[in-house]
Amino acid sequence: MQSGIQTFITPRRGIGRVRQDIIDNSISDYIFFMDDDLRFFHRPTGSKKLSKSGPAEVGAMLIQMERWLREEGIACVGLSARYGNNWLPGEIFVENHRPCMAYGFDKRILQQNNIRFDDVEVCEDYHVILSLLRRGFKNRMSVIYACEDNGVNKDGGCSIYRTKEMVEESMETFVALHKPYARFRKTKGLTQGFDIGYEVSVQWKKAFKDKDLVHGTHIN
After folding, report:
1. Residues 14-38: what's their mean pLDDT?
2. Is the CB of residue 167 less than 8 Å from the CB of residue 192?
3. DSSP letter at 219?
4. Which of 216, 195, 60, 38 lies closest to 131, judged by CA?
5. Measuring CA to CA, which residue among 161, 72, 94 is closest to residue 122?
6. What is the widest separation between alpha-carbon atoms in the chain?
7. What's residue 187's pLDDT?
């Protein structure tokens, strides 16, 4: 562990279960999840445009994410998507949105409030982030750092085991857990390589405003 790298093997399959195993086994309180096909971007000081990030900028981004978790007590932090980034209102960050594809958590808050990734097989990130908001834990999404991926359901990863039935069941479970803040509907077209589309809509800001669940345990 002198390198700062921790490895472990989980026998479980499925993104929700694997992410929960990381939460349960990590020696760090602060965990940052990233999809494996991401490209990173940053907005240089004084610029309105995003530039491609190299190792130095990605390192600076991770340092900022940890500071928000460790020093400011934010329960969930993350990056904005590259597309649409210029429409976000904040200069540095916005709060109570849904971070995209790259996000970090204080695992103690998740554990003390029994918020788990493996409550659903997929759509697990929506579930965890929304669960935090409903318990009064705000999130923070960077505007000066952003990312994009190569598209959904590419070879490898979740595409190996994800089925239409699994996605539909997970979405139904997610909506049942989070009414009235979440809903989904079937649409025409291709979604995740399937012959039917699924569209999920979530009222992130309203969920935080209402705080309809018992207020969670905050870390001092």
Report:
1. 92
2. yes
3. -
4. 216
5. 161
6. 52
7. 76
